[in-house]
Amino acid sequence: MSAISLILLFGSVSSVEDHGYSVELGIKGLKAFLPSKNAEAFIKTCNCGSPLSVGQPLWCVTQFKDKFKCTEGENHVLTVTIDPLAVQSSALTDTSNLNCFLPGMNFKGLIQSVFDGGLVVNVLTFPGHVHITHLWKHPKLFSVGQQVSLKLLYIDVNTKTLHLTALPKHVQFDGRPVKVFGDLQISTICEAKVAWTQKKKGVMFHLPNNITGFAAMSQLSDVNKESAKLQKYTPNSTHKCRILGFNFMDGLALITLKKRILQMKFIQINEISVGELLEVIVKDVTANGILVKLAKSIFSFITCLHLADVPIKKPEKKFTPGMKLKCRVLGVDVEKNKVFLTHKQSLVKLKDPVTEYSQLRPQMELEGYISAIKERVLIVTFFNNVKGYVTLKDMSKEKVESPDSLFYVGQVIRCRVVFFNAVEKKLKLSFNFGDEPVTSPRKCLEPLDISIRKINEAVILSVDSIGYTLGIQNKRKAFLPFYHLSDFHEVQELRKMSFKPGHKLQGLTFFKQKEKLILTMKESFVSAADTNNLLETFEDLKNGMFLPAVIKNHQDYGMFLEIVNGYTGLCPFKTLSYIQPSNLQELFKPGQSVMTRLVKIDTEKQTFLGSVNIKECCESGVDSSLSTLRSYLLSRTKAHLQLFNEQDELAVYNDLKVGDFVEVVVNSVLKKGILCDTITGAKGLVTKDHFGDLQPKVGKCYQGVILFIDLLTPCIEVTLDSKVVQAVKSFKETDKTKLKTNQILKANILLMKPEFMLMGLKGHGSGKFVYVPVKQNLNDVNLKPFKIGSYTEVVIKDYIEGLQLAVFKMHDLKVTPDKYHQAETNQSNLMDIVEEANVMPPRKVRKRTTTEVKKPKKVLKKSENIHTIENNENVSDNECLKSLQGNVPRLTIEVFSWKGEVIPHQKYPHRQESDDEMETTKSESLEMKNRKHAEELKLQEHELDQLKDITHVQSSSDFEKLVLQSPNSSVVWIAYMTYHVELGELEKARLVAERAINTISFREEQEKINVWMAYLNMETIYGDPTDVKKLLHRAVSCNNPLDINLKMCNIYVANGKTFEVEELFTFLCHDLKHEKLVWKSYAHFLFKSGQVDIARSVLHHALLDLDKRDHVEVIIKFATLEFSHGDIERGCTIFENLIASYLGRTDLWSVYVDMMVKSGDIAGAR
Questions:
Q1: Which span out of 34-43, 63-72, 244-253 was modeled with the highest average pLDDT?
Q2: Per-residue model confidence as pLDDT tens digits over 389-433
Q3: Which residues form a coiled coil (predicted)?
Q4: Is the pTM above the cut of 0.85?
Q5: 20 to 30 Å CA-CA from 549: which of 42, 711, 897, 1103?
């Protein structure tokens, strides 16, 4: 007998049986059984293959073989099915009893009549009503007699009328959970199209993703008089709205069109961000604090503790209802519907408050308030309930007996991070900064035994998060911090990997003794100890001494250095003028080794002023650079041997060395190179610079030569260049191929590392590699890039541990020809003349003013092969660019165009300007423009090459691989974002952008800025204006505000958002009014957009706000804009007035003439 489907019921699993499930229907005296076979389709399609669980809710369709027994009440157990198709198609077809109808049942109904409010239908002889909100289209589009599919909502018992729905999401429901409103959320602002209007009720709208919205009459305008104005809401007209809530049964999003609500920053507490700056209104003042209003129905109570930096006892004297205050959000409790604010000005004015433990960094300085004082600790609280503790010894440099006597609850205080664990939410803080107290604390320390300065041997007793505890002679304990393991970061990390408790260490020396004895393994200090150059007392310090030091910390004005015995001194940043100020803290980090020259000594305070300027701390010659490289290579070799003994998994790298011939199999090809494996199992890397003529393919085997062994990764760096491979294969050690000290050979650069440069020799040394130093000493941090594959001459030097050292020929004064001597004496930094061998990439050309050079006249013989110009007064750089005929070695710098003919030296008076000179100047200017254009084209080609590999990516998993391989590449991250945007997955694109910002190293500033700009551009195109402003606020707080805001202006302009551009420029002209670039950019925008009159008024405001030294440059900008986008006559007038005020400024004449020529007025230019 075939089963008969009858009723759709709702139940839940009550128990799991052997052959199915018991289902509770909620009907007294009636149970249901769900056979396993009837649940298979649902489990497979809707339950991810997992069996049903007790308590799981289900839509069930009844099945029984004998309908008569069921109706007579003989069957008390029903058989049900949850097959999605059965649930969707179930319908009651025959009944005469209204009690058989249950909500959720499906029916077929006939339309009896149509009216504005909905439909009247007939269902199985019973009358029914379908409201307009439960129709997928307007009632007028239905016809009498039409059959429609319906689902029962409820029964009106009084009128015995069925109330039904015809919405597809209800009628076609198959038991699976559905997301009714997609990605829409409360408070979302979107565009809505009018569907139809209902008199005295409201307007129905079509929202994105086929969602219907409803705006009641009271939500159409801020003034509730819209009943007579419904005619303006014509079908398909577009309006901006904001979502207030959802009606899930009716499938309606409840929206508002009120401008006041649209302009609100938030309408729910969960939209408020911790650390956000808000403007609030005081509603009430009490003895315990004040009640403030954040938005409609959102209030907060600020206690007296947070009304000011110092707690206020009587708030009614300072605050009155109606006052507007600026507060910062301390925390948000969504569950309790509470917002916590602070009005402490020190916290309100913070630029980048810490709101998560993950934002903390070691030694970070931050501000918080004391929330509790215990007997031995203080509790300091920050935003979002981030808390830390301060122990007695960290409260002051002096001994603290009672914290109550020095601190009070609510006190705003600056502190330093000592230790933190973001996972366990632990944070230890300190109130001590900078140097140790200098009020004779050293006299309190026990005398240090001189014999302990040279530590023969130490044993590692234990290890913690910052270093090793050691046991030394006489059963004393000492401490070895991680940053004291080596002068070199790579060696430091290798030693951290190999050192374990129980290991014996050698090569240590005394550093200082404070609360405990601190030792160091830094090579510079050990070398000083070996030569007895360690200081016994402060009186041993002399001006001009050259000592090793460790960077202790940074301040805005300089960095503190620490030398042996714990003596500290200051190195002002102004002595490092050759380094960009923004890079100083990146190049010189706490714990880093430097060499310092003592400039000034303060015996009374026992402090000193030191300099780490490379020109003051480096002696002439190559001894210093060779010594630094020698120290690095010896330490690195020893660290490798220690690591091989400790970690068996690195055994495959033990037998490998630089210069070995290997065969590799390609695993994957990336945009920057390939990943490969050797036959022995070692991982390998080959960059594109080392492909040679090959085009490697996955799975193929190639021959290569090892250039570098990296045990930190671990992997080896290999070259596949056939010239290098062939040279190594054909090399044979003979008397002729032996290298001799001070021998000069040609070599090309194969590899660049922070501490050295690996070069391949040519000539009879072909097949051998040499290590060339790239640093003059430890202070040489601002390294210049070298070009892989460039050739130069090197001088062979030492041979240590199987490694051959060499130096650039022009650096070795013992073998440098006379032609380099003059350049060397005029430039203390020898690295500046490496361009002789075309090692350096071309420098950008900058125009410089002519400088007077006064030197005694000197005439050289032609046999000296040096072109020297007779030294005269007022000789410009361009006049010195003449060369002798013949094959003369010359500096190969792209700034100049060298020619072979002999040009006699001529004297030109300053005021004489011939046509030839003008033609030369024009040709040089044109050549510079062409070169700059060529460089830009090369840059574009490079960026397109980077994108070629990304175009083959077809899935998210492929992008995940790419971002793992190149985590700091903005090109990859932006392509990943674009991939999601093209699929319409904006939320995923946002997540990728956030990941990129958190993943890219803080050293890669430009890469991060690229991601920020792409993120802002995406939000500008697809996001809401409020979200764009929030994101811009974040970007500005993390980067240079001027750069980010100006780039944002360009994004707005590119997307045609004129109003937003003007709003942002108005803000910039107020907040950054002293920046000339802001005014120039604003003027350019106004002129280009045709707002010439407004632009001219902006000039007046700019001159009032800018420094006088910037006036000329800004006036020139406005004048040039008048020529290109405004009135040429007005531009001429501005130039005439400007030149009359600055008659001696020839550069103004040049700009004026150039603008006249561009405008076509050649006669006027003459």
A1: 34-43
A2: 999 888 888 888 888 888 889 899 999 999 888 888 889 999 988
A3: 923-950
A4: no
A5: 711
Whether 52 and 70 have beta carbons less than 8 Å apart is answered as no
pLDDT at 777 over 50: yes
Which has the closest alpha carbon to 226: 192, 246, 197? 197
Question: What is the DSSP annotation of 471-509?
Answer: E-GGG-EEEEEGGGS-SSHHHHHHHHHH--TT-EE-SEE
Find out whether 703 and 730 touch, Cβ atoms under 8 Å. no
For residues 381-404, one letter each, b for 16 or more C-beta atoms within 10 angstroms of the residue's C-beta and e for the rest, the string is: bbbbebbbbbeeebbbbeebeebe
CA 970 – CA 1013 distance, rounded (Å): 10
- For strand 661-669 and strand 683-687, is the pairing parallel, antiparallel, or unpaired? unpaired
Contact 926, 919 (CB under 8 A): no
User: What one-character-per-residue DSSP string does 125-177 give?
Assistant: TEEEEEEGGG-SS-GGGS-TT-EEEEEEEEEETTTTEEEEE--HHHHT--SS-
Amino acid type, 95: T
Tokens of 983: 């699929």
Read off the pLDDT of residues 663-705 as tens digits, 9 standing for 90 and up: 999 999 988 899 999 988 899 999 998 998 889 999 999 999 9
Angle at 802 between CA 800 and CA 805, to 5 degrees: 50
Strand partners, 203: 197, 215
Domains and CATH numbers, the chain: 4-171 (2.40.50.140), 189-262 (2.40.50.140), 269-348 (2.40.50.140), 357-430 (2.40.50.140), 449-531 (2.40.50.140), 535-614 (2.40.50.140), 624-837 (2.40.50.140), 842-907 (no CATH), 942-1022 (1.25.40), 1040-1166 (1.25.40.10)
Strands 211-216 and 161-165, sheet pairing: unpaired
Q: Round to whole Å and give the CA distance between 1123 and 1087.
A: 10
- Report which listed range, 82-96, 413-427, 816-830, 946-960, is most confident: 413-427
Angle at 1048 between CA 1043 and CA 1051, to 5 degrees: 135
Q: What tokens were used for 66?
A: 């004998």
Q: pLDDT, tens digit, for every residue of 295-317? A: 878 899 999 989 988 888 888 88
The pLDDT of residue 328 is 92
Three-state DSSP at 330 gives strand
Give mean pLDDT, residues 1118-1139. Answer: 81
Residue 284 sits at φ, ψ, to 5 deg, of -155, 150
